[in-house]
Amino acid sequence: MTHGVAPREDRRALGIFAMAAAVTIFTLIDTSAKWLVLAGHAAIQVVFARYAGHLILSLLLFLPTEGLAALRSRAPKKQMMRALFLLLGTALNFTALKYLPITVTTTIMFAGPIVVTLLAIPILGERVGIHRFVAVVVGFLGVLVVMQPWGAAFHPAMFLNIGALCMASMYFIMTRLVAGVDSNATSQLWGASIPTICLIPFVLSHWRWPDSPDTWTFFILIGIFGGCGHILATTAHRLADASILAPVFYVQIFSASAAGVIFFATWPTKWTLLGGAIIIAAGVYIWHRERRTKAPSAT
């Protein structure tokens, strides 16, 4: 094992907790992005701010303890692909946020657990039992009940979110592939530096400095949220299988509702309560199944 690289572990409860914190922070990233694009900033500048802030945070956290060795990857091609999937997903999602409510974009992205679960079978070789798969699907149905996507007016920007969904799903698959191979520090530095460098030539012509305290706040925080969220997500994928972590994305149903109320005056409806109950039931069932399958090996 390379120095500084933590091995993969089977610590499901801790992995699920880390992923729950990560997806909550992901909602704050989207909230910040929507605020900035509505304030008139180009989506590409918002994407750049998100990755540049992430890179600065990663450098401050990891270089003092791990030095330049943190920049060396044992899987550079996978890290490159991982970073590009994340960059493309972020760009598509932030562009869609300019035209769609945050609840709609979140709804589309909630299909991620199903895509990740399906991709984890051929790419990661994970075994996904019928009970876990059905629970993921039931959870997704609960999300549909909450968000009522069939009641929203169709907008072509929804196709952007479908693209973001596919890219984000591949990002989490690649995150699992490099977990235990490269350190969290290496994954964060590669994941932040590659998009930052790629965007520099394109962002200069769209640059506009924030012109209010609120906009400055989100301009700074979006990078911090990006760094913290993905550090937690990378850690979670080292501790648990991607298909186990997939249903945790549904935590965003609560954080997105809260963000809608606080920042965009979008209140939850009775469907939120009903759909939330369905999602919680699916989550409890997954926990029950995991406890039953874990008990014999523990014994």
Descriptive labels:
299 residues, 12 helices, 75% helix
Summarize the structure.
This protein is mostly helical and 299 residues long. 75% of the residues lie in helices and 0% in strands.
State the secondary-structure class: mainly alpha
- Please, what is the average pLDDT? 82
List SSEs in N-to-C order.
HHHHHHHHHHHH
- Binned, the helix content reads over 70%
Major β-sheet profile = none
Number of helices: 12
Overall form: globular
Query: What's the alpha carbon Rg, rounded to whole Å?
Result: 19 Å
Task: Explain this structure.
- The protein has 299 residues and is mainly α.
- It is built from twelve helices and no strands.
- Helix 1 packs antiparallel against helix 9 and helix 4 packs across helix 7.
- The longest helix has 29 residues.
- The radius of gyration is 19 Å and the shape is globular.
- The protein starts with 11 loop residues before the first helix and ends with a helix.
- The model has no long low-confidence stretch (mean pLDDT 82).
SSE layout and pairing:
Blueprint (H helix, E strand, L loop, with lengths): L11 H27 L4 H24 L9 H22 L4 H8 L2 H9 L9 H18 L9 H22 L5 H20 L9 H27 L2 H4 L6 H13 L5 H29 L1
